[in-house]
Amino acid sequence: KRATDAFKAGEKALEGERHGDAEAEFKKAIDAFGRARDAAAKAALERDTKEARTKVEQLRATRADAATGFFTRRKLAKADSVLARGTAAAASGDFADAKSAFAEAAALFAAMPAAATPPPPPAPAKAPGPAKAAPAPPAAAPAAKRAAKSPVSAEATSLSSADATKITSADAPSLLDAPTKITGSGTLDDGATVVAERPSATKVDRASLTPPAPVGAEPARGLPVVWIGAAAAGVMLIAGVWMLRSGTTPSTLTPPPSTKIAAKTDVAPPAKADVVPPIEPKAAATARAPEPPAATAVQQQVAKVEEPPPAPPAPTIPKIASLAPEAERVEPASDSQQFRIALADPNGATYAWSVDGKIVSDATAATFTAKADTKPRAISVLARTAGGEVTHKWELAALAPPPEPKVPATAPVISGFEPKDKTLQLTPGKSRRFSVKAKYDGAEPVRYAWSVDGKSVGGNAPTFDLAADDDDEGATRQVRAEVSAAGGPVAKNEWTVTVPAAPVTITRPVPAPAEIVADLGTSTDFSVEARAGRASASALSYTWTVNKRPAADANGPRFTYRPDRAGSADVEVRVEAPDRPAATRRWTVKAREQAPVAQPTQIAALPPRVEPTPVARIGGDAKRELENWVASYRDAYQQKNVDRLVTLGVVKPENRGKLAGALADLDDLKVTIASSAIDVQSPETAVVTLTREDSFNAGGRRQTQSINIKKNLRKVNGSWIAQ
Fold first, then answer.
1. Sheet architecture: strand order including 431-439
2. CB of 633 closer than 8 Å to CB of 665
3. Peptide bond into 219 cis (omega under 30)
């Protein structure tokens, strides 16, 4: 009931998804069911042991009284010893050993002869009727003389023998030397039973002898046997004398050649017959007694005695045919080891296994599995059959102790991490750095492990850079950092990174400066190169406007603008792609009156007119060109266009990747030139001093920083390049 209740409780816990409680209840149920099974097995074994004890005690009651011979008494003593061993085992609670011992004792008692069942008291013999007067019979001669006159054996005539009624078939004709009839029953040495009867009117019937007692039964002793045997011998001797006096030639009594006649040695004494056969009066000397009628001629009735069946062969002593393992010392390959014993004749065999001297109650088969331990164990098996028992022992070696894990005193603790936000976005083509800080009080080195979506990345370092590529668009990544020491507990931190669809990006605007100075009547060509994502083939659409008004005949990546009046005008292009944020580019065009061209004069003193240096191959003086350079520098930083910064000479080509990674960590970057100063030292050289203010999101908060920059510029191939 306890097991059933625990099982039901485990099912309820499992339905409620309380897996810990379910596991505990199921373990209780397993333990309770195991105890119930062991109790049932023990009760069944105890019941079988009691039945076996009752059976063997009944067998002993029928065999003990018949144990008279030397060898029979030895068998009885051995059986009693086995019975006593089983009784002691049952008293100590070892029912398996007790049951085996009772079975062995029962087999020994069953092989012994049973005691003879006492015969019922014989019915009293009827007294014979009155006979004719006859002279008294002559006094019985001494036993020695009777033996000399008659061929009856001395064994049959000896009154001092306990077997006085025993005669042989060779003695029968001499005893029955007058016409007689064989009737009734008696025991001869070779197995036949006979009784003699005179053919006179008066018949003498001998009481039937008891059937042969079983082999090994103790013969009846005491005064009745001697007295009754002597009386029977005397009656037979008197009958022989009477037949000799009658003068009649006795018929030859010859048993059939195939019939064995034997005397019975161990019979219960027949009932006493106090009747003496009458003796006919002696006839005259000249007269012969008439021949008896043929019908009364001597007849022989022989009863065959069936020989008892041969005793079953004695059971053989058990022998071991094979063992597994064969070696006496066994090294366990795992935490358990199987043992097996095979007998040459396993018929009716029982097995008892023990571990370290303690019998395993439920191990009754020829195989047994023992659990290895950290110390050696002694395994033994006892195999019993009807012929005896045989044992074998093994030594199960100890298991090697597992190495003790080194557990640090305390687990590492993550004291800080970047980014602070656990959920963030990362645009394709950009990267983001993740970092953790750990504290650990132990002496073991701290190890770091990084993974993205369960796959190991990075190395044993506190930082990891995640870069999103085109294939990551629309995906969600799980970034995990794990910190451990010496294989102990692990501290971890996780981030969820989503990669949205990449916006449209304008990769190359022409002209590069955002502010352009143009002369009235001069055309300016504008163009952009854009893409949707890093490797997307999405169709792009272009919209050009001038002062927020759509430009006529402008629907591609190029547009030409000619100012028609002096002043400023905003030229803007918007590049769009399906399902992606659009990109825009704006230029400010300052139109001016075209400066008059000086006419050549003949005045030699006038120096030649110096034409202004164009900005980005458009035109203008050096200062305007340098102002355009500063604007391009600001736009390149804000757009994180590293290639443009390399073209302007601000970043060396070998530092391109490093700067790109640093800018990728700055979200929503805004760049402003707070102040600037331009010093044109010559048409080919200049010095630009400026203060750049950067505003961006980092670590979950908005940050602002100011940077003072001074650059020496040189004009190369019509473009200003920072040195």
1. 413-418, 431-439, 463-467
2. no
3. no
Identify whether the C-beta of residue 235 lies closer than 8 Å to the C-beta of residue 274.
no
Distance CA 50, CA 99 (A): 8
pTM above 0.90, yes or no: no
CA neighbor of 140 nearest in space, from 156, 157, 125 = 157
Rg of the chain (C-alpha set): 66
Mean pLDDT across the chain, nearest whole number?
74
- Contact between 632 and 716 under an 8 Å Cβ cutoff? The reply is no
- The rounded distance, in Å, linking the Cα atoms of 44 and 465 is 72
User: What pLDDT is attached to residue 496?
Assistant: 94
Residues with Cβ < 8 Å from 677, sequence gap 6 or more? 688, 689, 690
Burial class (CB in 10 A: 0-12, 13-18, 19+), 320: middle
User: What per-residue confidence (pLDDT) applies to 243?
Assistant: 54
CA distance 694 to 690: 13
Which of 452, 462, 451, 465 has the alpha carbon at shortest distance from 415? 462
Give the span between the Cα atoms of 346 and 350, in whole angstroms.
9
pLDDT digits (tens, 9 = 90+) for 512-551: 898 988 888 888 899 999 888 665 667 889 999 999 999 8
CB neighbours of 267 closer than 8 A, spacing ≥ 6?
A: 165, 187, 209, 210, 212, 213, 219, 220
Reduced to 3 states (helix: H, G, I; strand: E, B; else coil), residue 318 is coil
Q: How many CA atoms lie within 13 A of 18 on its CB side?
A: 11
Residue written as tokens 């069944």? 44
Helix (H) / strand (E) element for 626: namely helix 622-638
**CA 628 – CA 648 distance, rounded (Å):** 11
Q: Residues of 555-592 as b/e, b for ≥16 C-beta within 10 angstroms?
A: eebebebebeeeeebebbbbbbbeebeebebebebebe
d(CA 686, CA 625): 11
pLDDT tens-digit profile of 17-45?
898 899 999 999 999 898 888 888 888 88
Best CA proximity match to 21, nearest among 11, 34, 32, 35: 11
How many other C-beta atoms are found inside a 10 Å radius of the C-beta of residue 204? Answer: 20
